[in-house]
Amino acid sequence: MEKNWLVIVALLFQIIQTTEAQNGTSSSNSKLKDAYTALQSWKSAITDDPLGVLKTWVGNNVCSYNGVFCGNPQNSTLPTDLVVVGIDLNFGNLQGTLVKQLSLLSDIALIHLNSNRFTGNVPDTFQALQYLAELDLSNNLFSGSFPSVVLSLPGLVYLDLRFNEFSGPIPDSLFNNKRLDAVFLNNNQFVGRIPSSLGNSKASVITFANNNFTGDIPASIGNMGASLKEVLFLNNQLNGCIPEGIGRLTEMKVLDISVNSFTGHLPNSFSCLKQIEVLNLGHNKLSGVLSDTVCSLRSIVNLTVSGNFFSGISPSCKNLSLSGNSIGCDFSANCLPGLNQQKSQPECSLLPSGMNCVQIPLITLLSCG
């Protein structure tokens, strides 16, 4: 997935340049003294460093520490006025916990801790990190409830909690943050319904995959409009109908709702997903006709509807199933006449009743083209 956080990347580049230029700067200012206290406290809470990542974390010149980046604070351009503005310890294989003293890094913008062995949760003192824009805790052993302290970070743009052991529900207010552009929640143990506040979000990427979410996709998702480019619901315990409003996501490129229990027919509004490239509806309980609604989408390169109960197919969809086309398709394990690798008649007869969904036309979709 291509990141679009260009401002943050530019900031990090500036941070690195400033750090290199000022590497010998004295730590006499109070904020670097606070940073020394914070980083040494954290170092004491790291119990295993097999790669020697922290071997340079000695002395009071914190700007020389491996993985620590210094730069000018938000309200200053003086070259000698340095603060810690970034920490990147990705792939360090460090074992330990986060400590409350990290809140002393009050000017920090980036914390990247991908692929370590950190445990516990995020200290409540992180609420002091008002400039924090990127928080990447992915591929660790964090546990407990959703780290609600992140909800108090006004500058947060990128939140990555995937591949941890977080559990419980996610808070309704998560999606009220208009600045959040990427939210990765996948591969945890989250439960409960996806909040109806989802539609308030302006994020371009959200992943719910590989958790234990239940209920349906909130109808409010359509309110996200052109902002949402990728959303992954796969491998949860979601059910109900696919909301008609999903057609309002006119800039969507990736939609994956596979391995759930969604029912009913595909909404007509799917025809509005003109930018969709990957559409995975596989392994649900969807039924009805597989029509041009999905098979005529102009940008699609991968279409998966396997493991459902579709019983009718349009000519254009049937053409897609033939070998030699440029689109990757999987129509197997349905009830489609004339196609190979379909369910047996006894299996198709097991389609439960009440599988149809009420199709409510949306006036705003009439001009989707």
Automatic annotation (TrEMBL):
Residues 36-70 form the Leucine-rich repeat-containing N-terminal plant-type domain. Residues 1-21 form the signal peptide. It comes from Papaver somniferum. It is found in: Secreted, Cell wall. This is Cell wall hydroxyproline-rich glycoprotein. Keywords: Cell wall, Cell wall biogenesis/degradation, Glycoprotein, Hydroxylation, Leucine-rich repeat, Repeat, Secreted, Signal. The keyword Secreted applies. InterPro entries: Leu-rich_rpt, LRR_dom_sf, LRR_extensin-like_regulator, LRR_N_plant-typ. The lineage of its organism: Eukaryota, Viridiplantae, Streptophyta, Embryophyta, Tracheophyta. Gene3D superfamilies: Ribonuclease Inhibitor (3.80.10.10). The keyword Disulfide bond does not apply.
